[in-house]
Every structure is written in C-alpha cells, then in structure tokens.
Amino acid sequence: MNNSRRDFLKVGAAASAAVVGSGTVTGAFAKEFANRTTKIPSASHFGAFYAHVRDNKIVDITSQLDSDANPTVMVKALADRNSSDSRVKYPVVRKSYLEGKGRGDLRGKEEFVRVSWDTAIDLVAKAIKKAQEKGGNEALYNASYGGWAHPGAFKPNALAGRFFNQIGGAVRTSGEYSNGAAGQVNPSIVGDMEVYSIQTAHEQIIENTEVMVLWGADLYKTNRAGYSVHNHRCFDAYEEYKKAGIKVISIDPIYTMSAQEFKADWIKIRPGSDVALMLGMMNYLYKSGKYDKDFIEKYTYGFDKFLPYLLGKEDGVEKTPEWAEKLTEIPAKTIRQLADIMISKRTFIAGNWAMQRAHHGEQVDWSIITLASMLGQVGLPGGGFGFSMHYEGGGDANSGKNTIGGMSQGGGDKVKIAIPASRMSDLINKPGETVTYKGKVIKYPKVEFMLSAGGSPIGHQPDVNELIEAMRKLDTVVVVEPWWTPTAKMADIVLPATTTMERDDVAGAMSYSADRIYAMKKIVEPRYESKDDYEIFTMLADKFGKARRYSRGRTVKQWLERLYKRSSAKREMGISFEEFWKMGVIKYDIPKSATKFVRHEAFRKDPVNNALKTETGKIQIFSDKFASYGYEDFKGHVMWFEPAEWLGNEELVKKYPLHLVSPHPTYRIHSQLDNTWVQNVHKVQGREPIRISPNDAKKFGVKDGEIVEVYNDRGSLLAGVVVTNTIRDGVVAIEEGAWYSPEDAKAGDSIFGGSDQRKVRCNSGQVNVLTSSRPTSQMAQATTANTVLVSIKKAGTVSPNVAYNPPKIIGA
Ligand SMILES: Nc1nc2c(c(=O)[nH]1)N[C@H]1C(S)=C(S)[C@@H](COP(=O)(O)OP(=O)(O)OC[C@H]3O[C@@H](n4cnc5c(=O)[nH]c(N)nc54)[C@H](O)[C@@H]3O)O[C@H]1N2
Ligand SMILES: Nc1nc2c(c(=O)[nH]1)N[C@H]1C(S)=C(S)[C@@H](COP(=O)(O)OP(=O)(O)OC[C@H]3O[C@@H](n4cnc5c(=O)[nH]c(N)nc54)[C@H](O)[C@@H]3O)O[C@H]1N2
Ligand SMILES: [Mo]
C-alpha cells in the first residue's frame, strides 16, 4: 500500500496547518486584527469557526482550520445573517388575530402588531387551551420538523417536542423528507436504515475500489454542509480517490459537481427511471449467467420469487436491456456494458436520496441492494453499496467514542399519532380520513393549532400553495424564528428566537467520525427582544404549571455540563467541563483499526452469527411481510412502477415537456442563508437559477441570464436562466430553498397578496410551488418532490423580489 494513500488524513491536516502559518505580511495583518478583536469559537452546519468581535459586532468569521480541512464560503455568511434586517425583532401578532377576529384567511396577507412577550406567550397558551378543549391534544400539531436549525444541543424542534410532551403531547411526524421512502423499507430488507449508518471507510475505498458508481450521489455538493458540524475532510479523501485511479461513473440527469471533479463517465438517465435501468442490468446478468449465484444462495432470500417478474413470466414483459432502453433512454448496449464493468471490477455503488424522493421511491434502494447482491460484492472491501457516502462525511472512520447528545424531548406524549412527514397538508385538509403507512392505518385527527420551531414548512413542503391554503383553515399558527422566513410570515404569532451566536451551546461532530466536541459560545448580545428557544418554551410551560418539570430548574450551562458528563472526554479522558469550555474544542483520535471498516463485512464473514435483523436474517430480495400488506403500489419484491409525472408520459409531456428536479442547494442548507450576500455567487437577477440545456434553451426561446416563468397546474415561479451543458436535454433543475414570495407581495414590505394562490407567481423561485404532494406509495407515504413536469416561457414584466423584506409591523 502506498504511503500517500494510507496517510491522507494526516497529509490533509498538515496542509491546513501550513495555511495558518504562511506569509509574513498577512501575518502582520492578522496580528493587528487580533489586537483589536476578540476571537470566539463556535460551530455550525457549515463548519467550525471563530467569530472575530469588536464592540458587540462580528467583524469577520474564520474557520477553525484544524477542524475544518476544506472550508466553504458559506461559513462567512453567518455574520451577515446574524445582523440581517430580516431578523424578527419583537414578538408580533397578526392584526385580526390580535383583535379576536381570527380571519385565518388573511394569514400571510395582513400586517402584524408588535406586542410584549407577556401578551404573546399568553395568547399562545390560550390558543393551546382552546384547541385542547375542542379536540384534546390531538388538535395540537407540532410541525417542528427535522432539526436543521443548527447543530447545537438546544435544537428548537427537540425543545418544542419537550414542551408538548409536558402538556400531554401533540400530533407529530414520523419518517423524513430526506429519505422517507428508503429509510422506512431498508430495515426490513437489510436490517438497517442504511441511510445513517457508518459507511465503508475511505481508506478501504482508496485501496480496493476499482469502479465507483455515483448513483445520483453528489458527494462534493451535499458534503459542503452537515447535520452536525462538517469537517470537510472527505474532500481530502476524494483527492486520494482521484490519485488511486478509481474509475467513476455518474448516473444522474445532471453532470454534477462530483462528476466534474472526478471527470466521471456520465450516464444521462431520465429522472425517475433508475429502477428500470437496474432491472435491465439484472436481467442481463441473469441471462448471461454472469451474476454471483453463490452470494444469492448464501446471503439472500427470495431470488426465486423475484425471477419470474424479472423474466416477464408474471406480467408478460421481460425486463431486458431493450425494455429498459425505452424507459431510461440509455442504449441497451450501454446497459450491458455498465453491468459488465460492475460485475468484473471491484465496484462500489454510492446511492443518493433524491432518487427516492420520487413517486415509488421505495423501489430505489431495494433495487440497488438486489443488484448489488447479484454483483456479489456486498461486505467486500471497496465493494457493495452505501447509501450515505454523500452525507455527513460518509466514509469517515469512527473514533469509537461518545461525543455529546442533545436535549431530550422526554416522555409524556399520550397522543400517539405520528403522520408520515410530508403528509402535512393532508393532515390539515382531511380530518377523519385515513392513510396507510407501513402496514398500518392512521386516521387524521382534526388539528386546530400548529407550531413550528426550527424548520420552515413553507420552505420544505411540496405543493406549497396547497399548504398555504390549508394553513389558512387552522385556528392558530405559531412560529418561533430568528428571521422573517415565509413560514414566519404565515403565522398568527411570531416569537423571535435568538441565534446560536447569541447564546451558549455545544455540538458533537460528526455523526460518523464522532471525533469532536465543540463549544458554541455566545458571540454577541441577543438582537432586539429575541429570547432563547429554551427560555421561550420554559415560559410557555410555565403557563401550564410545568416550568419546573420542563427545565428541571436547570440553567443552560447546567444542562450543557450534564450533557457533557456522558462524553468520553469526561468519562474516559477526565477532561472537566471547565477545561473543555476554555479550550473550545475536544478532539478524539481515530484508531487505525477504524480505517479498516467495511460495511456488511461481519455479515459476509459469518451470516449465521451476524445475521441481519430481517425476516430471514438474510437480504430480503423478497419480503413475505411486505407482500402481506396487499398494497397496489408496493409489493413483495422490487418492481418498475411508472411514475405519475415523467418524460415517458406522452400525454402529460405535450403540456409540460420538461422534468424538473430540485437538488439540495450548493450555497445554502435548504432555506438557510437565502437572506445573505453569499447568494450573490449564484442567483440570477435576484432569483433562484434554473439550469437548462442549450438545446432546450433554444427550443423554448430562453436566454442565459434572463428571467423566465416556470409553471404547471400547481403553480408558477420566476427563475433566472443558466444555460449549461451540465444538464441533460428534457430536464431542468431548480435548487430547493429559495424564500417564497408571491409576485403581488406589497411593495415596501412583503406581506403576501394574491387571492388565487395557485395563480400568483413566486417572485423568488421557491421550487415547491411546482412540486406535488403526491405520496411515494401506500407504504411509506413519503415526499415525491422530484416527480414533476413543468414548462417554461418568457416572464414578461416583473416586479422587484421582496422575499427578504420583513412584513409591515404596527407599533414597531
Ligand atoms: N422540492 C424539494 N423540497 C424539499 C427537498 C428537496 O429535495 N426538494 N428536501 C427536503 C429535505 S430532505 C429536507 S431535510 C427539508 C428541510 O427543510 P427545513 O428543515 O425546514 O429547512 P431549513 O430551511 O434548514 O429550516 C430550518 C429553520 O430553522 C431556523 N433556525 C435557525 N436557527 C434557529 C434557532 O436557533 N432557533 C429557531 N427557532 N429557529 C432557527 C431557520 O431560520 C430555518 O427557518 O426540505 C425538504 N424539501
Ligand atoms: N450543500 C448542502 N448539502 C446538503 C444539504 C443542503 O441543503 N445543502 N442538505 C442535506 C440534506 S437534509 C439531505 S436530505 C441531503 C440530500 O442528499 P441527496 O438527496 O442525495 O441530494 P440532492 O442534491 O437532492 O440530489 C442529488 C442528485 O440526485 C440527482 N437526481 C434527481 N433525480 C434523480 C433520478 O431520478 N435519478 C438519478 N440517478 N439521479 C437523480 C440530482 O440531479 C442531484 O444531482 O443533502 C444534505 N447535504
Ligand atoms: Mo434532508
């Protein structure tokens, strides 16, 4: 083994150290700067950083280079965001709501009135009690999704959940937007969600992998930010992938950042057709006798029950490469070649999550697992599959130590209704109706009260026009936010939260490497009247006589110390909390043995003692349990189901000829940072870019740099054209997360106008006005944000985009 491969992590560290010490002139500037500012350590999803502060102002942000190997520009925008004009300054209440008139129909359209904290908290508590009287706790909906607000221990969604649990619970969500289809079925297929599991170590890939198939995985882009605090070390590893000469094949409608970096071969798949491609490959592998019969025999169950389908004996349609060519538009010859390369070389399939955020998304990982089983390399170093290489530095070796956890939601939830994430509009619109979910049936209760903290439903929910109309039916909507996001604008009561820069917190990182604990120290004083999420929910709990139970009488510092107690730093290394807080960061070594980790190796070595937690202990190519559910659109084995919207739908394509995908943003986390200067790097005339191929641009008569209207039956938006060869013909891409703002938002402020929600164009390019809330299937009921057809045309006259303006506030 060559040294540079083995030692790449060390090399990465040395390279960043060199940056710190370089240059005498810059050194002098740094010294002068240091004399005038205080340097305070903190951490974010974008990386660990120091804030340089003078007179309660953040004058610069620099990265903690020994914890962030390859910083991105996004971390710099955090200062701007903190002091942005789009901060929520005071508690406010929508005018008619405050006047006791309700008028939920005016949500998002009406000005707010500044009130005191007492009044605001009182009104929230009253609304909760009113809803409880009407429908019990089932009338309360805790819409605090996800935990993407920040990487600290005091996550707003956990704090909200903790509050509701103290008062008997609320309706919650189950599963995710991220991987709500695959994550719900994988455990029954391979005994683990796989989407959040430690991946085969980079070192094993570098040493052993000959072919890396990026099946929609954009490693370079989605690893720019992390759920905890991204260390960006994977980019050093990827350099070693390149040096090791790994052949990279990218199967994606976009020639992604990663494809470009790796100079990958590009398979320009039609969105939504990957399962057909895989079935074509599997059919070929079977008929040519090239597949790994021993692996199938020893490690899988039910191949014989899948074969009749693959060979067309069940439905009269054999899933040949020619059959797959028609669906995928990938030549049958290429399909065979792809299968041949993968069976003859040590091949690693890096799956993604976007493919399963699509109609019948449940089939995607299952097909990859079935294909990988036929290839027979599961559990071999550098072979098999991984569904998280693109996430949280997947491939990072694990320290084997404990970092630090977050605040728990505690017990007390008596509601027991968790609706699948992404069913939120249905929840509001369809009380009394039922929904199937993983073999069970859930009845939607009638919700009256909705609270969101630490997430942005008007950002994340598909078919956002449907959600806006649904939210207007509720009795009360409460949003806890530091910024005037479109979700805050849709509230009756907005409670201004401090940011992580305005209070103390801690973060463990990363999910897979588990080798850092960061102090997230208070950097500046809270802006205006904002309060910490913890304080806000303690105040609310107090209205129900539960403040003591909520807080256990502990201050934030006391909680942090308590959470820290369980870390290896305290338990094994004996570092006191005070020492940690003074140092600002704790680093654990990664043992050499961890770099040998190969996913599923234990199962491969001993499938009896290390049986998978599945029905048979083996990989379920067929699942009797799944078959027993009797669903129309999800059966006992992998199948090709035609998506409701895709380029293969000849009728629909006449009206809406382009497939729209909405990848995760390169310069944001979802909607976060959309209100900062860093967006100038990519926005076009202040709107979200739409990527389109040169052929399509010509066909639709649109030019690079101009604003166009993108539309379908669900809505329309304005986006800025980027003509590029890096997207396949027939496909356009708009990244998710632009702040919704209808074109008729009043000039001077940004209160939504628009009597007909579906007709008003979104002026900033929020892609979810176009996506559909159709579920993946009766099984997982997950989001299908990538199953969308649209058309585009010239925009005509446009007005300024006021998405980032606060609304009009009376008395402020
Ligand atoms: N079309 C389309 N839609 C998608 C997706 C897609 O691929 N395509 N992806 C989906 C996926 S996978 C996800 S995970 C979701 C993400 O959806 P969200 O989780 O809603 O995304 P964020 O915009 O990160 O929301 C975090 C919110 O927390 C707020 N916040 C930050 N700090 C604090 C704090 O200290 N206190 C409080 N109270 N709030 C704070 C931020 O301002 C922001 O509004 O989007 C989903 N939506
Ligand atoms: N910078 C940044 N990083 C992030 C996030 C962020 O907001 N910003 N969000 C984080 C979160 S919450 C999540 S869930 C993950 C998301 O991780 P992913 O879901 O994997 O990421 P996406 O960017 O949505 O999609 C990746 C690729 O899938 C391709 N794709 C779309 N449809 C198809 C299809 O039908 N077939 C194939 N083969 N490819 C398709 C897209 O073109 C895109 O290039 O990213 C995480 N990382
Ligand atoms: Mo996600």
TrEMBL record:
Chief subcellular location: periplasm
EC number: 1.7.2.3
Entries under InterPro entries matching the protein: Asp_de-COase-like_dom_sf, CT_DMSOR/BSOR/TMAOR, Molybdopterin_N, MoPterin_dinucl-bd_dom, Mopterin_OxRdtase, Mopterin_OxRdtase_prok_CS, Prok_Mopterin_Oxidored, TAT_signal
Pfam families: Molybdopterin (PF00384), Molybdopterin_N (PF18364), Molydop_binding (PF01568), TAT_signal (PF10518)
Cofactor: Mo-bis(molybdopterin guanine dinucleotide)
Domain of life where this protein originates: Bacteria
Keyword set, alphabetical order: Metal-binding, Molybdenum, Oxidoreductase, Periplasm, Signal
Record-annotated Molybdopterin oxidoreductase N-terminal domain positions: 42-81
Molybdopterin oxidoreductase domain segment(s): 87-542
One GO-annotated biological process of the protein: anaerobic respiration
The Molybdopterin dinucleotide-binding domain, residue ranges: 658-788
GO molecular function, one term: electron transfer activity
A GO CC term attached to the entry: outer membrane-bounded periplasmic space
Family: Belongs to the prokaryotic molybdopterin-containing oxidoreductase family.
UniProt name for this protein: trimethylamine-N-oxide reductase
